[in-house]
Amino acid sequence: MTAARHQSFIASHLLGGLFALAVFPVYLTVIGRPSLISALAFVWFLSPIATAIFLSKTGRLGSAHLISAANLTGLVTFAAALTGGITSFLLAWMIVVPIEAALSTERRVVLASIAVACLGLVTLGAGNYFDLLPAVQTFSLDPVVLALLGSVSALVYTGGLAISVQIIHKQSEEAILKGEQRYRLLAENTTDMITRHETGGRVVFASLAAERLFGSQPKSLLGDGLFERIHVADRPSYLAALNRCLAKKESVSVEFRARSKRRDDGASKGDDGYFLWMEMRCRPVSGIDREGQAGEYTDDQIVAVTRDIMQRKIHEDEVLKARDAAESAGRAKMQFLANMSHELRTPLNAIIGFSEILTRQLFGTLGDERYNEYAHLIYESGDHLLNVVNEILDMSKIEAGKFTIVAEPFDAAALVTSCCQIMGHQAEKKNIHLETDVDAALPELVADKRACKQMLLNLLSNAIKFTDDGGHICTSVHQVDDSIEISVTDSGIGISEQDLPKLGNPFVQAESSYDRSFEGTGLGLSVVKGLARLHGGSLELKSELGVGTVVTIKLPIGSLDVDKGELPEHSEAEVTKIAVGI
User: Fold this and answer.
1) Is the separation of the CB atoms in 31 and 201 below 8 Å?
2) Is the Cβ–Cβ distance between 76 and 90 less than 8 Å?
3) Strands 294-308 and 273-288, bridge-based pairing
4) What is the pLDDT of residue 375?
5) CATH number of the CATH domain containing 340
6) What does the pLDDT read at residue 28?
7) Which domain holds residue 16?
């Protein structure tokens, strides 16, 4: 539309200028040599060409119309001043000025053109009143004929402008109609219902998708029809969403139940139909500027898109039920493990105690040497099984959020020395050199001493288990910023790169085959990882297959509350997430 207006303006002004240029030779032939004033008049007739060039270069149609109005007013004023002033037969052309400006479709341009034309008339009137105009040019034609020619020419030109205005108006109507048809086509064929709301949520338009959603004609939703279909419990959230959309000028989404004649799986039965879950996304209506771009928001208009989300709600309910069932099963599993561990420890303690008595032969010799060997095997097997049970119990406590940590300040170096002494006997059996590397001036570590001892013993036990005879293990303690780092470095078999990410999870070992060389349940590292996280620390693993492994525990120096003597309380779910990183 804008391009068509530009082309019409440029074409008319080029034709006007070229017409004046074509008439000039005729004037020379009929009238003869022109006077200076006549020559200036002809040059002025060529000025529309310059105005057309200005529009083609800048694209400013309003400014071009203002220039054209001022130019035409000046030309008519000049010609009228030479032909009688306020009584000139050319004065009818002043009417052309605002009518031509109407083609710009801008009110300010039309008003400015009227002001310019009035200024020209006032100038002519003042010239006549004060006798400032030049001598009136004489013509051979009768004044009545001249007046008729001036009026007819102005009328013809004005008629051409009226036709142009009518053409532009028709084009605008066609463009609007096509736009309405296009958007109505989209609105009526989309599966989501499109509605338009006024202040208070009243519906003023509803698309044909309303019939698919509600089983009713769109007109039944007009006014308060949609509001009355919404479940009473969801009406406040529906109105709040509309108010927020208008107040904050932003898009808002809301979910609600609405009564529909259409039955759907999972829909609840109402007095007059079924309540289905729906989602409405609303946004304020923005105006459209002259270039067809979105402009400022209006004050009281909202466009909303509503869709059926019944199936999504059903799936969400299924997911929630499955999650609750999984959590319940997990709690039941942990409770079962805890109960079973307690039940197993009592007979195991008896087995270990009596087998130790038999091994030491405290009440006399056993006779055959094989009895002594079998008693020793029973003792080792029972001790191993008790360790497994204890690890399962600790892991179940951590995951269930029942593991109690008591904080106290203690010397980390002394703890490391004590643990190395405890594991020294096992290291000597495999001829493994056990050494320590401890900073000279370590601050006291505020943590659960028993838990830290358990973590370190687990790491040393793993290191000894996976280190060949004649190897070496180094336990180091250093302060790094605000943390204490306890590292156990061995020269054992190492861990492959693909197995590293899996370690630390319950019941996971680096070797998964049935004929693995080392016994164990894979709970040791998971217990260490859980205890470290409960202290606000972390567990890091670095290893190279065939070279060795470095396991590092990082614990904040002052992570626990000494006054309270325990960790800050966490919910069961939070403790589980902290412990096992789920």
Assistant:
1) no
2) yes
3) antiparallel
4) 82
5) 1.10.287
6) 77
7) 2-173
User: Given 396, 414, 430, which residue is the final one in a domain?
Assistant: 396
Task: Give the mean pLDDT per block of 10 residues along the chain (582 residues).
Answer: 82 81 76 76 83 91 91 88 86 88 87 93 90 78 82 85 81 84 77 87 88 88 92 92 89 92 64 83 71 53 91 90 86 73 76 82 77 81 75 68 76 87 86 87 86 86 87 90 89 79 55 44 72 85 86 80 41 39 34
CATH number at residue 441: 3.30.565.10
In this structure, the answer to whether residues 117 and 254 fall within a common structural domain is no
The pLDDT assigned to 237 comes to 93
Residues 132 and 167 in one domain: yes
Residue 458 counted as domain residue: yes
Q: DSSP for 295-314? A: EEEEEEEEEEEEEE-HHHHH
Query: In residues, how long is the chain?
Result: 582
303 with 451, same domain?
Answer: no
Distance of CA 503 to the CA centre of its chain: 36
Residues 167 and 19 in one domain: yes
Give the pLDDT score at 570.
41
* Nearest CA among 545, 468, 455, 461 for reference residue 500: 545
CA 448 to each of CA 93, 408, 459, 467, 566: distance values in angstroms, whole numbers, following the listed order = 103, 6, 17, 29, 8
User: CB of 187 within 8 A of CB of 129?
Assistant: no
Number of domains in the chain: 4
For residues 242 and 349, membership in a common domain is answered with no
The pLDDT value recorded for residue 115 is: 94
Q: Look at residue 183 and tell me if it is in a domain.
A: no
- DSSP output for 282-350: EEEEEEE-TTS-EEEEEEEEEEEEEEE-HHHHHHHHHHHHHHHHHHHHHHHHHHHHHHHHHHHHHHHHH
**Strand partners of residue 436:** 475
Contact 196, 285 (CB under 8 A): yes
By the 8 A CB rule, do 462 and 525 touch?
yes
pLDDT of residue 207: 87
- 108 shares its domain with 22: yes
End-to-end CA distance of the chain: 62
Domain identity same for 237 and 275: yes
